[in-house]
Amino acid sequence: MSDKRYLDAIHDALHEELARDERVIVLGEDVGRKGGVFGVTDGLFEAFGGDRVLDTPLAESMIIGVSVGMAANGLIPVPEIQFADFIHPAFDQILSEVARMRYRSNNDYGCPMTIRVPYGGGVHGALYHSQSIEAFYAHIPGLKVVTPYTPADAKGLLKAAIRDHDPVLYLEHKKLYRLIHGDVPDGDVTVPIGPAVVRRAGRDVSIFAYGLMVHEALGAAERLSGEGVEAEVVDLRTLRPLDTRTILDSVARTSRALVVHEDNRFGGFGAEIVATIAEEGFRHLDAPPTRLCGPDVPGVPFAHPFEEWFMPNADKIAAAARAVVAY
Amino acid sequence: MPTEVKMPQLGESVHEGTIGKWLKLPGDRVAKYEPLVEVITDKVNVEMPSPLAGVLGQILVEEGKTVAAGTPIALIDEAGAQAARAGVSLPAAATAAPAGTGVPVMSGDGRTAVQGQSARGGGPRLSPLVRRLAEEHHLPIEELETIRGTGTGGRVTKDDVLRHLESRGSATPVAAEATAPAPAPGEPGVAGGPFSAPAGKVAPARAPGDRLQPLSILRRAIADRMSRSAREIPHAYGAVEVDVTGLVRHRDAHKSAWRTREGVNITLTAFVVRAVTRALRAYPLVNSTFTPEGILVKQAIHVGVGVAVTDGLIVPVIKHADQRSVVGIAREIDALAGRARQGKLAPDDIAGGTFTITNAGVYGSIYSMPIINHPQAAILSTDAVVRRPAVVGEGIAIRDVMNVGIGFDHRVFDGALALQFLTHIKRQLEEFSPVGESAEF
Questions:
Q1: For chain A, does the N or the C end have fewer beta carbons within 10 angstroms?
Q2: Does B414 participate in catalysis according to the annotation?
Q3: Closest residue of B to A298, CA-based?
Q4: What is the pLDDT of residues B264-289, one digit of tens each?
């Protein structure tokens, strides 16, 4: 076990996979000589050379398109999209090629690719450096989507993703890079893609969250505990495939569900979770399953007070949980 | 929907206020802007006007108490809503409405993320979970509607139902499950029943290898009844040793003849029941039930006899046991036990008992402390007949000795009476002098 920051865990996973399998290629804007704009890929270029760690042009569609070609030719590309906000030029490649490859080729070709994408707000990144994108991409059949919260999960899920024979969208929250540190098992340890985990057991309400919001939900749970309300916090970790079993078991225990995400509320990923709970957990519910999300405005604001208004935080989560419990 | 009236902020630097005098009382009509309450701060005394018209529903803060500005101090029912609210009180510091607390909890399109306030407006009064619990516990809708709701707008919550079930006890389940056939072990477990975990606590952790055994209806009814008895009745115990040598010898000598003639086994229990009914006539207080209004001494003597069935224990009742002979009692026990084991007891077979006998001795117990069959006042236990040396006169002889114990409701009578009752039974059984070869004594 070592205590590592979130971004170190990601770095170490990349380093270990590059060392373990010569087919693994890391590519993206500024990932090589610069070591990444956040420092996540620092040292990889020096360690593995320009044939394994590629600096690409500023062209997201090309980054993913080239990766599709690499994958079809036996390599295991791990492309980075520098900010989630920039991924959309590559949407066509992801939807029409990456996620579809195995299906359309009747299993002749897979697309073993892991797309690393820093996402999320709370870092004064404003409209073009704070976006959440999971709603658009989790919708695509053929693509897995993961959102680790702990450093151990960050490392383990990235390894699992790189080894997965099918494409994975790996959403790393940029605020967690240096905010979070924790125990990471030494050695070659993977975390399975799929299972959610109960971070904190409770009996009065189930709070479902991912990424930075797990951090905020745990803070809210502390506050609520002081008031005699015990919240259960479930870290989803994987958005697709969704661990409905863990979600429904939690609701069966607490009879109340609160889903939290930063992304805009309308049509956000939370709607999928709430629909699942309502359809499959109906008889367990003592209150309507509820979402607490970012407001439906086109982007995370730049002015700090507006950014605070936008972002869910522990206080807002606690207030929402209180309301659900009082229903 | 009652509206909260909050302690106002009466000055820029004033952050709390003291309730001086309520100018309106619950039930009073109040017009908009009519003075509602006198509020005292260290700078100002004011009469606070009511922000709306309606009827004062509930005062949340009493006179003389000081609270922070913004604290709800009263609930006003908007004119017309009062009638529907009779008897329902909302939790004093209702935090159901996030709006107005200064914390934005909603999406940018203006709709609140949490439905708290609108619950009354559009939401169901009985949630899916509440309806499911009602189904599982055979709680009719009419009874469900009488439960006091502590949720927003008087909604009946899961906890309200669980509390209600606990207090209601098992008045009906024992009768209800008698109409069901012998309980199936595969009965689905109670996810939300009163025993899975007390109102919402996390269930005990399960280790690998642990096996969860679902509760059958019978098991649940037993658990219900036992909990209630243990919870409500202060149990005290006593026991006597009974030398039943004479009785045992007499029975051993004649039991096959009895069996042939009467067609049933005349068990020791039948003799015990006979003795018990006489003792109950001598000490009527033992044949009673405790009520807050007083001790209800029952006139009729209906003795229940514990019968083991596959899944638990059932207590069929011998009606008017005092009017039956030993043979009559034995016949009735045989019939009831037979029906019990086949799952064919009628509700009438198990209702109305005034006293209960349990025979733990059949399993070898020499001392037992049974739980009273609520709402009776006492339960008798007979333990195993043990052949052992005993002092007889000035010598020692081998005797058949049986412990007879009583568990009794200490609110109804005391140890002295309990032991007198037991001694009465002891004397009858020890001084057993049968009529010829018959079972009667």
A1: N
A2: yes
A3: B108
A4: 999 999 999 999 999 999 999 999 99
